[in-house]
C-alpha cells in the first residue's frame, strides 16, 4: 500500500470489503468503517488527497488507450437500496475525474423495446471502451433483485440470469476490463431518515417517489435477494464488495480506494510517441 | 447582472462576445479579455465562485425535468483550432457540474457508416434530453470547416450545409433547447507554444498528432472558413460567441458565464411534489 491517500487504511480496502465464500450480509454493520482508522474529518481529507491520484491514473489510462488499442477499461457497478448514496458517489468520486474519460450510465426501469430483448441487451451496449472508466448506476443486477422480489420473471428465468451474468462479466474481464462491483449497504433506519429529509425539504421533493416506500416495505426480501446475488455472482474475476454506507464519507472514500486499486493494478503508462519527436519539433518550428 | 461570480464583468458576457452583423474575426485579439475588469487571479477566483451557482442551477434544471417533460436543455457547442483549450473547458467548467446531468460528446472524424448518412445524422442522435446540459466537443461545424478547407465535399454541398445547420438548430431552439455556440479563438503564436510544449514533455506526447501541424499550415484558410461560418450560421436564436483564448483563465470564465446566463434565462424551479407530502410522511413514519 503506497498511495498517499490510503495511509489510514489498516489493509487493502478491496480485501477488507470483498464478498468471499461464507459471507453473510446480515452480519455487516452499515454504520461500521471497516479497515479505516480515522475520523470523518480524516476521511474527508483523504478523499480530497485521492482526487489528484485518481485524476492522474485516469489520464494515463486514457492516454495509453489512444495509442494501444488493447488498453483495459474499468467498470464500476453500483447497486443499493434507495437513498444509500449512489448519486453522491457519482458526484463526489466520479465527479472529480475528467469527464472526457468517463462513461456514466444510469439504468432505469427497462423500456418496452428493452423488455423485448434479453435483459443483457441494453447492458452490453453501455460497457466502457478501452481507456475509459464506465459507471453503471444500477445495472443488470436489477434483473435479479427487483426482478426476484417483485417476481417480474419466472423463477427459472431468474435462476438462468445468475449464470448469464457470470458469463457476460467473464467476457468483460477476459477482454481486460476491471469490473468493480459495489453494493452500498445502508440500514433501514438511515434510509428512513434520508427519505424523511426528502419529504421535509421542498428542494428535495423531486428526489422522493412514493414507490420508494413500497420497496422499503419489502426490505427483508431485498436483503435475501442481495444475499443470493452475492452467493451466485461474486466470482474470482469480478467479486462483489459490500460497503457500509450509513456514513457517507466512508462509502465515498472506500469506492475511491477501490477505483485507485483497480487503476494501480492496471498501472497505465504514458505512451511512447509513435512519431519522430525531433523531426516534429523542426517541422513545427518552421511554421 | 446579479450573479455573484460576475461582478467584475463590465457587461453581459453574452452581449460582449456575440457575433453580430459586420463581425470580423480578424479584428478580435486572442490575448484580450473583453468585458472583464480583473486580473488572472480575480478570474480564477470568480471561476471558483461560479461553480456553486452553476451547480445549483444545473440541479434545479435536472429536478424540474423529472416532473415537467418540456423542461429545456442546454447545448454547448465548442469549436476551435487545435490546442485552443476545449479540453480544459470540459475539465474545468463542465467538470464542476454533477456528471449525472451532463451529456458530453466528442465528435471525431466520421466513420464509414456516418459518412454514408447525411452529416447531421450522427449529430441529431446526441442532442441533450430535457433537463440536461449537452456538450459537443467539435460538432456539425467541422463539416463546414475542415470540410471546406480540405474540400471534403463539393462546394454546392458545403453551401447547402449552412442552411441545413440553421434549420436543425432552429428545431432545437423551437423545442426549448438553449444552443450556446462558442469558438475559442487562439493566436497562431500561442498554438505554436502549446504544441511545442506537447513535444517537449513525454507525458504530453499522446496529445500531439503530426496532423496538427498540417492543419496549422492552413491557418488562413481556416480563419476564412470560420468567418464564413459566422456569417452564415450566427442566427438570432443560436448566435455564435467568439472567446479570445490565449488566456485560458479568461476563456474558462467566459464559457462559465455564458452557461450561467443560459441557465438563468431558463430560470429552472424546484418542482412541486406531485404526491401528498403529509400522507407520504405518515406512510413512511409507519414503516
UniProtKB/TrEMBL annotation, chains A, B:
**Is Kinase among the key words of this record?**
yes
Q: Which domain of life is it from?
A: Bacteria
The alphabetical list of record keywords is: Kinase, Transferase
Give the Polyphosphate kinase-2-related domain ranges. 43-268
The GO molecular function terms of this record are: kinase activity
List the protein's name: Polyphosphate kinase 2 family protein
The source organism is: Microbacterium flavum
